[in-house]
Amino acid sequence: MPKGGVNVKKEAGRAKKAESESKKQAVLDQQTEAQQAAEWAKGANQRKQQKESEAAQKADEAARKKREKEELLAAEAEALGSGGKPKASSTAKSKGKAKKNDLAFLEDALVKAADKNVKKKKEEAIQKKMAEEQKARETKVEAPLDPLMQNTEYMLGDSDTVGRQANLAKMGDEAGATGIDAALDHLSISGGNANVPKSAKALYNDFEARMLPQMKEEYPGLRLTQYKEKVWALWKKSAENPANQVSVS
After folding, report:
1. What CA–CA distance (Å, rounded) separates 164 from 158?
2. Confidence of residue 160 (pLDDT cuts 50, 70, 90)
3. Can you give the pTM of this predicted structure?
4. Residue 179 burial (CB count, 10 A)
5. 175, 215, 179, 180: which is closest to 200 by C-alpha?
6. Are 107 and 114 contacting, i.e. CB atoms less than 8 angstroms apart?
């Protein structure tokens, strides 16, 4: 072989070696592809199996619910029976009847107790009302009036007819000046001074007109005669009373 020329034998060996490597690599590539394909197919099968398993579980659950519903409907239909009402055993009937009797007895007892309580309250209310009426009648009894106050009722036009008649009878029996009017008419003012501008009766009338509203405010709820009695008591002590102004000469 000439120097610097191509070594054919060596080149042929290299080519053969490269071809062998290429074949080996092709085999490896095929194996890798086959392995990947197998793995993908395995994963797809697993996913498929999982979906199938889930579908089966859902079907089983739906079937179980349907079966329970059918059993429940059948039990209700059997309990209702042909008449549309629940069947009850003799024991249940006897218990229901006993319970009903107990409730009826309790209801009767409650009604009787309530009636008794209402009756008692009515009696208490009647007794209370009678006591109040009796108290009102006792309070309404008038105390005997002062003779002078009786005559004042008559003179001032009080509407109490009985008071007038009693006063007139008393005036007839005594045959003298015993009332306020008579006392005021016969009163000697300031030792018989004729220059006094008003009579005792007029002074009393003014005094009473002023004091009656005050008495009604201080003692609400009294009768007119009672107010006038209080005014007359004040008049007897008042400095406006001519009797309290008489000077002994």
Report:
1. 8
2. very low
3. 0.27
4. 23
5. 180
6. no
Determine contact, residues 156/212, Cβ cutoff 8 Å: no
CA 61 from chain centre, in angstroms, equals 54
Q: How far is CA 40 from CA 32, 33, 35, 44, in A?
A: 12, 10, 9, 6
The position carrying tokens 């018989």 is 192
Residue 160: phi, psi to the nearest 5?
A: -80, 100
Say how far residue 175 (Cα) sits from the centre of its chain.
71
Q: What is the pLDDT of residues 59-71, one digit of tens each?
A: 999 999 999 999 9
Tokens of 142: 């008038």
Q: Which of 217, 211, 245, 243 is nearest to 230 (CA)?
A: 211
- How is residue 76 written in tokens? 């209700």
